[in-house]
């Protein structure tokens, strides 16, 4: 139940857009570490070969439990990104593949991403509906993103 609440809170906040990968990556790492699921992003488990031994039965049960958690992690990753990105990653059958592909696509700084961040910062104007605190939070996040890039 706690996992669902945490995911709901993340979905209310910042979902992955592509330009906010750095902070999204950190949030997902914290979430999955807290839920003791981070290893699903770094390792893969293969189904044991068919045998009729007691050891095989234990291995199969471990694999089934792993697969169930793997599906949960995959769902979590996909549900914490904007709909436009889901289609690009839903074909990945395991969360490790999604994680690795996201890292390949968004990690590091490309010239395009840097220009995008600079343009976003230069074009930003305070919305009348936003309080000064919200305005400063947005500006601070943009400066942090530029600094990280």
From TrEMBL:
This is UBN2_3 domain-containing protein. It comes from the Eukaryota. It comes from Cephalotus follicularis.
């Amino acid at each position: 139940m706690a996992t669902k609440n945490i995911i709901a809170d993340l979905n209310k906040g910042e979902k992955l857009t592509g330009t906010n990968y750095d902070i999204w990556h950190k949030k997902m790492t914290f979430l999955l570490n807290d839920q003791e699921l981070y290893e699903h992003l770094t390792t893969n488990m293969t189904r044991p070969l068919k045998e009729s031994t007691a050891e095989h039965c234990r291995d199969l049960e471990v694999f089934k439990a792993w697969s169930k958690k793997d599906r949960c992690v995959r769902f979590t990753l996909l549900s914490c990104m904007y709909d436009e990105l889901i289609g690009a990653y839903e074909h990945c059958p395991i969360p490790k593949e999604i994680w690795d592909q996201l890292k390949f696509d968004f990690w590091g700084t490309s010239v395009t991403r840097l220009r995008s961040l600079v343009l976003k910062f230069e074009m930003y104007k305070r919305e009348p509906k936003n309080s000064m605190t919200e305005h400063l939070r947005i500006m601070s996040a943009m400066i942090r993103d530029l600094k990280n890039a």
